[in-house]
Amino acid sequence: MPSLETTPKIRARMSKQRSHDTGIEVTLRRSLHAAGFRYRVHRKPLKGVRREADILFGPARIAVFVDGCFWHGCPEHATWPKNNADFWREKIEKNRARDADTDSRLAAAGWLSVRVWEHESAAEAAERIAVLVHERRPRRGLSPAEPTTEYITRPVPG
């Protein structure tokens, strides 16, 4: 990776960037919890893979990742800094590649990976996740491998 030339001011600003419990992440969790869902926070879905999901629905085997537009190269809002351009381009491209690898590993293990961009509406994302959890949640008398389309829709407060 190219070297990073920075100033103390920039270093201080970047160190304040949150990696957990961002605004969209907390709002999304509140919406899901208010709708009656229970989940784990910041857990690794697969042993031996050093990547953790922001929200994890174990029985439904759904891992939710809340991705920042800058850090993960959002197709709508990605920006490419002019300072240290080579460093940032490589950093963001590596993040994208790691995200794709994570999604692939989870799919191979029977998990569904859900990506939520930080610019998305938390209420809309919660509704989308709620449908998926209901579809994938094991039902009494059914094995997890047997798909079912029966689910109850619950309004998600916005």
What does this structure look like?
The chain is an alpha+beta fold and 158 residues long. Helix content is 37%, strand content 13%. Helix 2 packs across helix 4 (122-136). The longest helix is centred in the middle third of the chain and has 24 residues, at 85-108. Mean pLDDT is 83; it is low at 146-156.
Question: Would you kindly provide a brief summary of this structure?
Answer:
The chain is an alpha+beta fold and 158 residues long. The chain has helices spanning 8-15, 23-34, 85-108, 122-136; strands spanning 40-43, 53-57, 62-67, 112-117.
Give the SSE map.
Elements: H1 8-15, H2 23-34, E1 40-43, E2 53-57, E3 62-67, H3 85-108, E4 112-117, H4 122-136
Parallel strand pairs: 3-4
Antiparallel strand pairs: 1-2, 2-3
Return the string of H and E elements. Answer: HHEEEHEH
| Tertiary shape | globular
Structural class: alpha+beta
| Spatial strand order of the main sheet | 1-2-3-4
Instruction: State the separation between the terminal residues, measured CA to CA.
Output: 42 Å
Detail the poorly predicted runs.
Answer: 146-156
Beta-strand residue fraction: 5-15%
Let me know the largest β-sheet: 4 strands, mixed
Rg over alpha carbons: 18 Å
* Helical content (DSSP H or I, runs of 4+): 25-40%
Which whole number gives the mean pLDDT? 83
Query: What is the number of helical segments per DSSP (H or I, 4+ residues)?
Result: 4
User: How many E strands?
Assistant: 4
Descriptors for this entry?
4 strands, alpha+beta, disordered C terminus, globular, 13% strand, 4-stranded mixed β-sheet, 158 residues
